[in-house]
Design goal:
Length: 173
């Protein structure tokens, strides 16, 4: 034992990735479903955190990532919108992030977590639509998204296996 280096990562034992302000950040490369890869491995480009986009830009960027089979990365776009947007829309963006994370878990083969998050996200966007009195914010059909999520949750539970994130991705608009 006695090594001061993590064998699989090539970094000093106990070292943590930190940003310029000293906050902990995981700089490990990730695959298309957001799973961490060993340091030095080729991963996919990460979504920058804390980007402020217009709602339309958020929807368009998340849709492009979903179409590429990268729901984890789409979740990060929705999370930025949730954190930077108006208080009145936070539940909408949080629900959309839950849908993307649910698809991520379903694609990773996590049946229970995927189905649970898909249903939670479906309920969240429906509740927001009812409370806000609008079912098509920024061109998204929230009723159709909720239906997609519930159907995918059923499929995941029935098949018990991972889904293809690209093939299973929803159309937001």
């Amino acid at each position: 034992m006695g090594s001061t280096r993590d064998m699989d990562e090539g970094r000093p034992a106990g070292a943590r990735d930190r940003d310029e302000e000293g906050r902990a950040r995981n700089a490990r490369p990730r695959d298309g479903l957001g799973r961490p890869l060993p340091y030095g491995a080729a991963g996919v480009a990460r979504q920058p955190e804390g980007v402020v986009r217009t709602p339309g830009e958020s929807v368009a960027e998340a849709q492009a990532l979903l179409a590429e089979g990268k729901p984890f990365h789409a979740h990060e776009v929705f999370e930025d919108a949730w954190k930077s947007g108006p208080e009145s829309e936070r539940a909408l963006w949080r629900g959309l992030a839950q849908l993307a994370v649910g698809l991520t878990h379903a694609a990773r083969g996590n049946v229970t977590g995927g189905a649970r998050l898909l249903r939670r996200g479906a309920g969240a966007v429906e509740e927001w639509a009812a409370d806000a009195g609008q079912g098509r914010p920024y061109g998204m059909d929230l009723g159709a998204l909720a239906g997609w999520a519930r159907e995918l949750a059923r499929t995941v539970e029935e098949t018990g296996g991972p889904v293809d994130a690209r093939a299973a991705a929803p159309r937001l608009r």
